[in-house]
Amino acid sequence: MQNGNLKQGTHYAAYDSGTPLEWMDHTLEIQGLGEIRGKQFLKDILQFTGCEISVNSLPSGASMPVYHQHQENEEIYIFIQGQGQMQIDEEIIDVKEGSVIRIAPNGVRTWRNNGNQPLLYIIVQMRENSLRQYSIGDGIVLDKAVTWPN
Ligand code: ZN
């Protein structure tokens, strides 16, 4: 975990994960898969309470070595650069920057980078059917004029 660039206040935690092109420098240990490069989970760093989010970089030509499913969490994959393919229940879906894919827990998934630049993406994981209020429905607009110190 890299805590050097974490800032915390009473009601927030702010972290700099590096530029997306630096995401490949992140490493983590996954049981059974060994050391993984290009993936960083953010929940423990920023203390999320309702989801897990990871920032990811997969090199050109690389593919995930396994299929996986989830027990109770759905996943949202948000692609921000590159070109790749997701395979979900043996169906192939082309992805590129701007592609957003939601996969139900039982979906059997894997993916690869078949483009010529790093595939950069963010994965959000949260319990299926857990959301109660959302979008602007959960917001409260305050009766307070906006000011900035300078
Ligand atoms: Zn997953």
Structure in a nutshell:
With 150 residues, the chain is mainly β. The chain has one helix and twelve strands.
What descriptive keywords fit this protein?
150 residues, mainly beta, 1 helix, single chain, three-stranded antiparallel sheet, binds zinc ion, Jelly Rolls
Describe this entry's structure for a reader.
The protein is globular. The protein contains one helix and twelve strands. The chain has about 150 residues and is mainly beta. Strand 3 and strand 4 (about 35) form a beta hairpin. The protein has one helix at about 45; strands spanning about 5-10, 10-15, 25-30, 35, 40, 50-60, 75-80, 85-90, 90-95, 100-105, 110-115, 120-125. It has a five-stranded antiparallel beta sheet with strand order 5-6-12-7-10. The structure holds zinc ion. Zinc ion binds near residues 68, 70 and 75.
Strand content: 35-45%
Task: Figure out the total of helices.
Answer: 1
Major sheet = 5 strands, antiparallel
Structural class by sheet pairing and helices: mainly beta
CATH class designation: Mainly Beta
Shape: globular
CATH topology category name: Jelly Rolls
- As residue ranges, the low-confidence spans are none
Backbone CA Rg: 17 Å
Instruction: Please give the alpha-carbon distance between the first and last residues.
Output: 34 Å
Order of strands side by side in the largest beta sheet?
5-6-12-7-10
> Could you name the CATH homologous superfamily?
Jelly Rolls
Q: How many domain modules?
A: 1
The helix-strand sequence is: EEEEEHEEEEEEE
